[in-house]
C-alpha cells in the first residue's frame, strides 16, 4: 500500500569518523534505524540480528567493518544514514506504528521494510488528513516537537456556520481554552477552491473554510479553538509542517525529503537547547505518543 512519489534524497550520508567496535544500539542509532532508546526497544523485541544471531543484550558490541547487522531481515550499515519522509496521510487511520486495539494505522502507507525504526513525528487525529513527517532521526524529531522550536503548522479547516473575518479575532488574540490561553494564531478565510483538500471545491451554505497557522502542539488544539468560537470543525487537513508540504502527493502517498528540506527542518530547531525536555514527548522511539504534537 505504501506509495513513493518523486523520492530523491532524504537519507543522510555517512559521517566521517573512525569506525571502531561500538555498542549495538549506538550503531543502530547512527545508521538512522531509530533513536538510541528506540534501537534498544528493537533489540529487546528480538528484531535485531548480528551475523545471523538474534541479539537482545543491550551491552552487546559490533564491529561495523566485519559484522552483518539486520533489523527485521533488512541489512543495516552506517553508510545509509537517517531517513526523512513526508506522507500525505489519509483519513480513518491512526498515527501510531502499533495499535493494541488492532485499528488501521499509518504503517501500510510508509516504507517500514526499507527503513526499520521509522516513526511519525507527532500525531494527526484519525479523521485528520495531510502532512505527516516520518524519520529515523530521534534527535531531530525531539527538537521539532519541543515547544522552544516554535515550528509552524498550517491547516485548512471546514467549520460549521457562516464565518466573517472578525469572527476569527479571538483566535488571533490567543483564545482561552480549558488548559490555558493559546499562542495567537494566524488565520484567514479561504475559498472552497483554495481549501480543496477538505472541501473538494464545494461548501454548503452553512459551512466556511479557514486557513490557520499555529506554533503549539496541544492536544486537538485547532478543533478546540474553533469549538470555543462556536464553529466546530467538520473536516481538517494539515497543509504544512514548517517548510514541508504534501504538494503533488496523492492521498496515501509518500516521498523522501530533499537534503534542502532536511536542512531547513534542522534550522528551525536553532533555539532548542541540549538538555531541554519536551514535556509532550513519549520516552520511546514512537514520537506519536499520546499528547505528542497532537495539535489538530
Describe the structure.
The structure is a single chain. By secondary structure, the protein is of the alpha+beta class. The protein has three domains: 3-76, Structural Genomics Hypothetical 15.5 Kd Protein In mrcA-pckA Intergenic Region, Chain A (Roll), CATH 3.10.290; 84-148 and 244-268, 2-Layer Sandwich (Alpha-Beta Plaits), CATH 3.30.70; 152-241, 2-Layer Sandwich (Alpha-Beta Plaits), CATH 3.30.70.1560. It contains seven helices and 18 strands. The protein has helices at residues 24-30, 36-44, 138-145, 169-173, 196-199, 221-228, 259-268; strands spanning 3-4, 22-23, 48-50, 53-54, 61-62, 69-71, 74-76, 84-89, 119-120, 128-135, 153-160, 176-177, 180-181, 186-190, 207-214, 233-241, 244-245, 253-256. The strands form four sheets. Strands 1, 8, 9, 10, 11, 14, 15, 16, 17 and 18 form a ten-stranded mixed beta sheet that branches. Strands 4-3-6-7 form a four-stranded antiparallel beta sheet. β16 (233-241) and β17 form a beta hairpin. α1 crosses α2. Residues 14-18 and 274-292 have low confidence and may be disordered.
Low-confidence stretches: 14-18, 274-292
Count the DSSP helices.
7
Strand content: 15-25%
Number of strands: 18
CATH evolutionary superfamily of the largest domain: Pseudouridine synthase I, catalytic domain, N-terminal subdomain
Q: What is the CATH topology assignment of the largest domain?
A: Alpha-Beta Plaits
- Cα end-to-end separation: 25 Å
Order of helix and strand elements from N to C terminus: EEHHEEEEEEEEHEHEEEHEHEEEH
